[in-house]
Design a protein that fits this description.
single chain, 1003 residues, alpha+beta, Serine Threonine Protein Phosphatase 5, Tetratricopeptide repeat, 8-stranded mixed sheet, 35 helices, 47% helix, CHAT domain-containing protein, NLR-like
């Protein structure tokens, strides 16, 4: 299970409580134009404007804030104080008092150093480090025209601080106004490398950390990963890879990787952060390392170890938190001013909540309930009870009740938690998750109508936000609908149609990650500027809403004006979504959206039917759409049992050291009996079957299922499903609806271009792409991706058959990604990539599905040889068919390969492909060449893509035992190719499964 973090923990001291989130400077998002005050040490133009007054030992005559380089938060704060400014006054202000206490809460400073400022005035310089982020910071005390001046800011702001402190703002240089040079500035540059970074770097870092926090809170872990990875990159570039303060984004990145079950990657980062944390400026960092190790252990399924880590984290946090928040005898609600103490309190409460989760999973539910109550009490005593954290605490408490068998009590707590989430982040994923959990408990308690009410409210949120939930949360909704249909036969058709839509609310973690990453990267891609701008607008709208929700959460009271702002922001987000859809018609391929049965029926032709399924932990459902009617049947076994059957079929289909294995006919028939047989009456008359598989079934060609018994020793004449239907696979029903809505048939002027016989990267290039310290296993797997010489003949034969020019076969060292991009792929109706596809699960250090090409000459690493799914988004295509003929969804470590293939297919559909023809395992060269060539020949003759592929496969089956050996009836030879996407073309409505009029060829 994924473990979202409290918002404050993810960015440490720059957290979500008072004082303001940046913890050092005021959040001045709507700052007005101020007085020009020259440039900083990086030559970034700066302005000053009136600022927030803070506590000081003397009267504050004037407070100003400095903004540099377009930064939206102050780079420095300058306070002019009343009174004398003798040497002893400067020493006292720099060493003690209210201002110094305020400063110490936010930065870690060395002892004051006596120095001088421009013009020769005496000053005290403090070299500091910001506790949040570890950025170099300076503070200075000097004599100004009206008395002492105290100031602090990022190191590069010191020239501006000096000018404001001395009243010398007429010029732009460090010595503006004449007089002696600034010894303070020279000292700061020498000690702090002030010219190594600027305010914009700090601003970018903080924006990325805040974005990561927001995305994590809405449980979008893949997009949060991208934000934290970028923040870490900024910090490492400026501070250095081994700077202890990089531990903060490193930990946040680690836990978001862990939440996606990328456990080995997360462990490497946790270990690095653990080494760096003792030297970090943030005092809570070592506690956070233990905390995140605990969360990682939870994700790894080790609750006992998690509880140990989390209890150690509590001890560390408690040492930094005020005793009043931990004692039953001191029940106060005073807001704390010290951000370190705030971070420690929030960390302590969240560590207790997470430990309660671990205890509950370890079978210690009663103890878990006590611990989560302790966490709630810590927040209450500190006066820090944000709705998001309280909602999570209530949800954790409900989890303990569930394990104690207190179903009704758990449901009540979950409904209360959903109410909290509806205030903190209305209409977002945490609220929907909690409603589904509440519905599950109501169903267990026999209160089906209340369960359905909760499920339907949560489903409305998921559809509006186009997000999904884990399968295990969605299956109870289908169970409730199935029970209701049995109890109310008259309502059964409508309820089964609702089941069809409900099943699409489930999403697998890998699929969600690929889709979220692809969607997020459109906003920073180098593709269509209109798309980039529209996607960024949508991202900005989402961020605005999150800020408003946080503001309402912090206010803790009804606020009609704020509610009106939220409603207006929601409307802007809706408009932004429309702008994205207009700029990028294929954008819907990157959304995990549900479509209703009526939409699917309208997209299907008269001879087409759809088969879709959902596999839960203990049971599942299979559904069909045909003639405007949904039929649904319960599958009596769960995902693990289905996966075992798929594994048996796959193992008996792929060639091994002993040659082609004996095919497991029993497993193939059992899968047919589970998935297709129960719906056979409703699929009668179907010629083309569109299949939307789920989970492990994504790695299985459905054409090889057996509709009846067949002897494994003689598969000639076996009743394969492909004999009954032309079969099209789709990642989801929505994929088909979107493809069909985009129109039919390519308008590209050229018939074909093919790429093959790649030259693999060298061992040295692979080693640079997959460092041995964290990707050694991946390096070994990657170097095993040998050359595919058979693909040269495959591409050449296909080119000749399609009548394409000789230069439309790009082979060997010429097959590079830059060369491929230069070909203007939108000019070709068929694009053929005869090469390896790497699917995450095979290579954990390559998080995206990728196509492998030859590395360009002189490439320092293997990276330029990988065409990643996110890069496919920038390619413009207009292809009826993209052929990827060396894919393997069950390769080394290929668990989840089918899901990865689904993500890659979505990227090609976004780019403009209508269909993707791929292989599910390494195929025989001769069979591959024949299948590809005969499919293209039939398609040239007017057949649909689906019918063309079926015809090529039937050719092998019909000729097995006649003109070719009977062994070719084994699925190894004919079954690996599948068509993903749209099986139709212009002028062929209905998806006819007939062979073209020129009849089947003979071998």
């Amino acid at each position: 299970m994924r473990v979202p973090l409290a918002a404050c923990l993810l960015i440490g001291l720059s957290a979500c409580s008072e004082p303001p989130p940046d913890a050092y400077v005021t959040r001045t998002m709507n700052a007005t134009a101020g007085e020009p005050v020259g440039t900083d040490a990086r030559n970034e133009a700066c302005q000053a404007q009136p600022g927030r007054t803070i506590a000081a030992d003397r009267q504050v005559l004037r407070a100003r804030e400095v903004f540099c380089g377009g930064w939206t938060q102050p780079a420095a704060r300058v306070l002019e104080l009343a009174g004398t400014a003798s040497e002893s006054d400067l020493d006292a202000l720099a060493s003690s008092g209210l201002w110094r206490s305020w400063l110490d809460q936010r930065v870690a400073c060395g002892p004051p150093t006596r120095t001088t400022v421009t013009g020769g005035g005496s000053a005290r310089l403090l070299a500091c480090t910001r506790r949040a982020g570890g950025w170099p910071h300076v503070a200075i005390v000097t004599a100004g025209p009206s008395g002492p001046v105290v100031a602090d800011g990022v190191a590069t702001s010191l020239p501006v601080i000096e000018r404001l402190a001395t009243g010398r703002t007429g010029g732009g240089g460090a010595a503006a106004g004449g007089g002696s040079r600034s010894a303070a500035l020279e000292l700061a540059v020498a000690r702090l490398s002030a010219d190594a970074f600027g305010a914009a770097d700090v601003s970018r870092y903080e924006q990325l950390m805040n974005l990561g926090r927001d995305l994590n809170q809405t449980e979008n872990f893949a997009a949060a990963e991208d934000a934290y990875r970028a923040a870490l990159s900024v910090q490492e570039r400026v501070l250095g890879r081994d700077n202890p303060n990089t531990a903060a984004p490193m930990l946040a990145l680690a836990v978001n990787l862990s939440n996606q079950k990328r456990l080995s990657e997360a462990q490497v980062l946790l270990d690095r952060a653990g080494t760096l944390a003792p030297g970090a400026a943030d005092p809570t960092m070592q506690a956070r390392v233990l905390h995140y190790r605990g969360l990682h252990a939870l994700n790894a399924g080790d609750p006992a170890r998690a509880a140990t880590f989390l209890q150690e984290a509590e001890t560390r946090y408690a040492a930094l938190a005020p005793a009043a928040t931990q004692s039953q005898e001191n029940d106060t609600a005073d807001l704390l001013a010290d951000p370190v103490q705030q971070s420690a309190i929030l960390g302590l409460a969240e560590a207790k909540r997470n430990r309660a989760v671990a205890l509950s999973r370890a079978g210690r539910a009663q103890e878990a309930a006590e611990v989560v109550a302790e966490g709630r009490a810590v927040l209450r005593r500190a006066g820090l009870e944000p709705n998001m954290m309280v909602g999570r605490a209530l949800r954790t408490e409900a989890g303990a009740d569930i394990r104690l068998g207190r179903t009704d009590a758990a449901a009540t707590l979950l409904e209360r938690a959903a109410g909290r989430f509806s205030i903190a982040a209305p209409g977002e994923r945490p609220e929907a998750v909690t409603l589904f959990l509440a519905g599950q408990q109501r169903l267990r308690g026999g209160r089906r109508s209340e369960a359905l009410a909760a499920f339907r409210t949560g489903a409305g949120i998921l559809r509006a936000r186009q997000i999904g939930l884990p399968v295990a949360l969605v299956v109870p909704y289908l169970d409730a609908l199935d029970q209701e249909a049995a109890a109310s036969p008259g309502s059964a058709p409508a309820l089964r149609a609702e089941m069809f839509g409900a099943a699409q609310l489930a999403q697998r973690s890998s699929t969600a990650r690929y889709v979220q990453q692809a969607s997020a990267r459109l906003g920073v891609s180098e593709g269509n500027p209109a798309v980039q701008g529209a996607v960024r607008g949508l991202q900005d709208a989402d961020r605005e809403l999150r800020d408003l929700f946080a503001e309402r959460d912090a206010s803790g009271a009804n606020n009609a004006a704020l509610d009106a702002r939220i409603a207006a922001a929601q409307q802007r987000r809706s408009e932004a979504e429309s702008q994205v859809a207009a700029a990028a018609p294929g954008y819907r391929q990157l959304l995990l959206a549900a479509v209703d049965a009526d939409s699917v029926f309208r997209a299907l032709g008269p001879q087409e039917g759809m088969l879709t399924m959902l596999l839960g932990p203990n049971n599942g459902f299979v559904m069909s759409v045909r003639h405007g009617r949904v039929d649904a049947r319960r599958i009596p076994i769960g995902e693990e049992a289905v996966a075992a059957l798929v594994s048996r079929v796959r193992r008996s289909s792929e060639i091994g050291a002993g040659g082609v294995p004996r095919f497991d006919t029993a497993a193939a028939q059992e899968l047919h009996n589970l998935l297709v047989g129960p719906l056979a009456p409703s699929l009668a008359g179907t010629e083309t079957l569109v299949v939307a598989p789920d989970g492990p079934l994504l790695a299985l060609p459905f054409g090889m299922l057996l509709a009846g018994p067949a002897p494994a020793e003689n598969l000639v004449g076996a009743p394969w499903l492909v004999r009954q239907f032309a079969i099209v696979h789709v990642p989801s029903p929505q994929t088909l609806v979107t493809l069909r809505a985009a129109g039919t048939g390519s308008t590209a002027p050229l018939p074909y271009i093919g790429f093959g016989d790649f030259v693999p990267p060298s061992a040295a290039q692979y080693a640079r792409s997959f460092p041995a310290d964290r990707c050694g296993r991946d390096a070994r797997l990657a170097t095993g991706l040998g050359r595919l010489p058979g693909t040269r003949a495959e591409v050449q034969t296909s080119r000749q058959l399609m009548g394409a020019a000789p230069d439309k076969a790009v082979l060997g060292a010429e097959f590079t990604i830059p060369n491929m991009r230069r070909q203007r792929l939108d000019q070709y109706r068929v694009v053929h990539l005869a090469t390896h596809a790497l699917l995450p699960g095979e290579l954990s250090c390559l998080p995206e599905p990728s196509v492998v090409a030859s590395p360009p000459g002189g490439a320092p690493s293997a990276d330029p040889a990988f065409l990643k799914a996110s890069e496919v988004l920038d390619i413009k295509m207009d292809a009826d068919l993209v052929i990827l003929s060396a894919c393997n969804t069950g390769g080394p470590g290929g668990e989840g390969g089918g899901e990865a293939l689904s993500g890659l297919a979505r990227a090609f559909f976004y780019a403009g492909a209508r269909g993707l023809m791929v292989t599910h395992w390494a195929v025989d060269d001769a069979a591959a060449a024949l299948t590809v060539a005969d499919t293209l020949r039939r398609q040239q003759g007017g057949a649909t893509s689906a019918a063309a592929l079926r015809g090529a496969q039937m050719l092998i089956l019909e000729e097995a035992g006649r003109s070719i050996p009977a062994a070719f009836a084994h699925p190894y030879y004919w079954a690996p190719f599948v068509l993903i996407g749209d099986g139709r073309r212009a002028g062929t409505p209905g998806g006819s499964a007939q062979a073209p009029s020129n009849g089947p060829a003979r071998l």
